[in-house]
């Protein structure tokens, strides 16, 4: 068997489709085999040994046994390494000796579609390897994972607290409170369900774009499906939070927008697709672009129920309003005009109109009056016809400003001069935070969020952003008189959204402040998902070497929650010390029980978690539990 393994390994190294960074991609090989990929088959037939083992002659033709080949490649003896060998030694398998990357259950086009991908969020210019990807949980495990979580670190910030530089205690969480929550957004969303299911009017998210620079960097060809699963898990619970007349806006670039559209068709229903808005995020062409200069993003809009959802009109631009004048002093106010005639428009034929000066007006050849003769006479009697300043022009119908809608229907092309650019957003953040190091690569401008919130919500309705990032959404929502919920996982939640929101309360005048007359005020409540195993995950990620990881392993055994299939007796410290640091980190991550990342609500009174009385009181208030 070893000779067969060696032959296959050598063959696959010859084709770039099956290797990445010198490592063979088992998933890619298995997928190619199941699809009877001619390139793989031709490669396999180059070896007489492999050809004899996996091909059978039938009626003069060679038939490939793809099932036998898949079983062979899935065997853990194929391309073993120190990580998988040690992982198997302590029992971290699926019961058949397979790992997720090798399992026959996940080698189709969307290999992780039945998984729950815990997933974290990273600052785009600091990308890291995600530590909870590819976690497969049984249904009962998923139920426990999604149970409401305990919230700690409660703080209330209003104008008085910001001025004093000291948060107020929370005690009671009211219906009017805006919430900024730190923690994994998938689990935070499930916690919000207990209080906000069916109550959120508008969701806007600007998720990681899966560009290779934002934490979704993988050495196999399934990073795309991992991203889709990551999104699906969150979109499904987001749908539960939306009100029946609510909608979700998802901001993406060309790389994933079209795949996400299909995914959202599945989650929300194709019948609830509203539009794909194209936002001009840049206004200058980059001649340094390798192919074409990227000038736009996509914003996918889905309604919870399109028949119920009604978008608001967009404010009319000043130049449009200025086009309404009152040259004849009509007491009904400013007006503009529409033509009475229109080409190829049939109404009662080409009848003759006689103007006030006795001049006869006949429509040009091939043109008909837009209105019937009887309608024209009614308009004339109501002083709705404008004959020009001298009374001898072609007649036109007066349209009064007081009678038109208080805005215009939004187009699906949003120009930079109306909704801002990425460069504008960076300048807003730089001015507000006065710290270039705290900037995102691609923050969103306040004018863009103003447009979205203007279309999708009214005052006092609830806005949700569960990829809060720099806090643009809650900042704009507060300035526009909306209530908001925002979630961010990373530690910069205190540097960016929290700090920014305090400045909003103080009345900062950046972004849309002047346009909406913002003078400050309002408040928000801050809280964190109470950590359990997630605290170990943070320590593991930050560990500089295997010596530090061994100390963490000792703490995990003492106070953490390990997976039930972990055999701690088989953990050989000497072998573990020889693992590469990244493999050792991954191994410890795999040992953590995903169901105990955060503290479940039913453990609120558990002394082992050391939840303070104040945090217990605020958590009970949040979930509506009697004190």
In short:
Helix content is 36%, strand content 15%. With 627 residues, it is of the alpha/beta class. The model is unreliable at 97-114, 118-134 and 216-222 (pLDDT under 50).
CATH class of the largest domain: Alpha Beta
Fraction of residues in H or I helices:
25-40%
CATH homologous group name of the largest domain: Vaccinia Virus protein VP39
Which blocks of ≥5 consecutive residues have pLDDT under 50? 97-114, 118-134, 216-222
Mean pLDDT: 83
> Mind describing the biggest β-sheet?
10 strands, mixed
SS elements, strand count: 21
Number of domains: 3
Per CATH, which architecture of the largest domain?
A: 3-Layer(aba) Sandwich
CATH-assigned fold name of the largest domain: Rossmann fold
**Widest β-sheet, arrangement of strands:** 5-21-6-20-19-7-8-10-9-18
Compute the CA-based radius of gyration: 31 Å
Which range does the strand content fall in? 15-25%
Class by alpha and beta content: alpha/beta
Give the arrangement of secondary structure elements.
Layout: H1 2-12, E1 19-20, E2 23-24, H2 26-34, H3 38-44, H4 48-54, E3 55-58, E4 61-64, H5 66-74, H6 82-89, H7 139-145, E5 151-157, H8 159-164, E6 179-182, H9 185-196, E7 200-205, H10 223-241, E8 242-252, H11 254-268, E9 273-280, E10 296-303, H12 318-322, E11 335-339, E12 341-343, E13 353-354, E14 360-361, E15 367-369, H13 373-381, E16 385-386, E17 396-400, E18 413-414, H14 416-419, H15 422-433, H16 446-456, E19 462-465, H17 472-479, E20 483-488, H18 494-506, H19 513-516, E21 524-529, H20 533-542, H21 546-559, H22 573-577, H23 581-591, H24 613-623
Parallel strand pairs: 6-20, 6-21, 7-8, 7-19, 9-18, 19-20
Antiparallel strand pairs: 1-2, 3-4, 5-21, 8-10, 9-10, 11-17, 12-15, 13-14, 16-17
Helix pairs in contact: 2-5, 9-10, 10-11, 16-17, 17-18
């Amino acid at each position: 068997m070893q000779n067969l393994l060696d032959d296959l390994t050598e063959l696959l190294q010859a084709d770039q489709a099956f290797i990445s960074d010198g490592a063979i991609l088992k998933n890619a090989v298995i997928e190619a085999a199941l699809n009877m990929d001619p390139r793989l088959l031709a490669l396999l037939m180059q070896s007489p040994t492999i050809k004899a083992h996996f091909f059978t002659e039938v009626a003069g033709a060679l038939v490939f046994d793809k099932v036998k080949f898949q079983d062979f490649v899935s065997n853990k003896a194929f391309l073993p390494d120190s990580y998988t060998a040690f992982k198997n030694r302590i029992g971290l398998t699926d019961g058949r000796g397979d790992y997720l990357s090798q399992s026959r259950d996940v080698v189709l086009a969307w290999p992780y579609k039945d998984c729950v991908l815990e997933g974290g969020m990273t600052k785009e210019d600091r990308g890291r390897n995600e530590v909870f990807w590819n976690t497969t949980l049984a249904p009962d495990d998923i139920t426990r994972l999604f149970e409401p979580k305990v919230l700690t670190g409660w703080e209330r910030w209003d104008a008085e607290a910001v001025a004093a530089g000291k948060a107020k205690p929370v005690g009671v969480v009211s219906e009017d409170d805006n919430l900024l929550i730190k923690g994994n957004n998938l689990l935070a969303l499930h916690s919000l369900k207990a209080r906000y299911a069916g109550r959120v009017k508008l969701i806007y998210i600007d998720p990681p774009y899966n560009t290779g620079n934002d934490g979704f960097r993988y050495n196999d060809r399934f990073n795309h499906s991992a991203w889709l699963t990551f999104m699906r898990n969150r979109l499904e619970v987001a749908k539960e939070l939306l009100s029946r007349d609510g909608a979700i806006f998802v901001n993406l670039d060309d790389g994933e927008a079209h795949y996400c559209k299909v995914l959202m068709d599945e989650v929300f229903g194709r019948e609830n697709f509203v539009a794909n808005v194209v936002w001009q995020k840049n206004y200058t062409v980059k001649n340094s672009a390798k192919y074409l200069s990227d000038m736009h993003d996509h914003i996918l809009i889905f309604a919870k129920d399109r028949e119920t959802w009604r978008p608001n009109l967009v404010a009319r631009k000043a130049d449009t309003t200025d086009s309404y004048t009152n040259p004849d002093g009509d007491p009904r106010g400013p007006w503009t005009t529409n033509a009475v005639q229109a080409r190829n428009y049939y109404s009662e034929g080409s009848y003759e109109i006689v103007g006030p000066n006795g001049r006869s007006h006949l429509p040009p050849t091939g043109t008909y009056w837009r209105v019937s003769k009887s309608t024209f006479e009614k308009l004339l009697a109501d002083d709705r016809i404008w004959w020009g300043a001298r009374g001898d022009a072609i007649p036109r119908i007066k349209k009064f400003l007081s009678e038109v809608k208080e805005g215009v229907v939004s187009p699906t092309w949003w120009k930079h001069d109306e909704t801002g650019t990425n460069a504008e957003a960076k300048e807003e953040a730089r001015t507000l935070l006065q710290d270039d190091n705290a900037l995102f690569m691609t923050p969103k401008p306040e004018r863009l969020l103003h447009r979205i919130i203007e279309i999708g919500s009214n005052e006092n309705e609830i806005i949700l952003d569960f990829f809060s990032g720099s806090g643009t959404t809650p900042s704009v929502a507060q300035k526009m008189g909306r209530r908001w919920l925002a979630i961010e996982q990373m530690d910069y939640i205190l540097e960016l959204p929290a700090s920014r929101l305090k400045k909003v309360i103080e009345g900062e005048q950046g972004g849309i402040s002047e346009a909406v007359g913002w003078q400050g005020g309002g408040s928000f409540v801050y809280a964190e998902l109470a950590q359990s195993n997630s605290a170990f995950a943070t320590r593991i990620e930050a560990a500089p070497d295997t010596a530090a990881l061994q100390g963490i392993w000792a703490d995990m055994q003492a106070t953490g929650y390990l997976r039930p299939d972990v055999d701690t007796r088989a953990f050989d410290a000497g072998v573990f010390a020889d693992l590469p640091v990244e493999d050792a980190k991954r191994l410890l991550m795999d040992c953590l029980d995903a169901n105990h990342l955060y503290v479940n609500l039913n453990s609120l009174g558990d002394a082992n978690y050391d939840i303070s009385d104040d945090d217990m009181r605020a958590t009970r208030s949040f979930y509506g539990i009697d004190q």
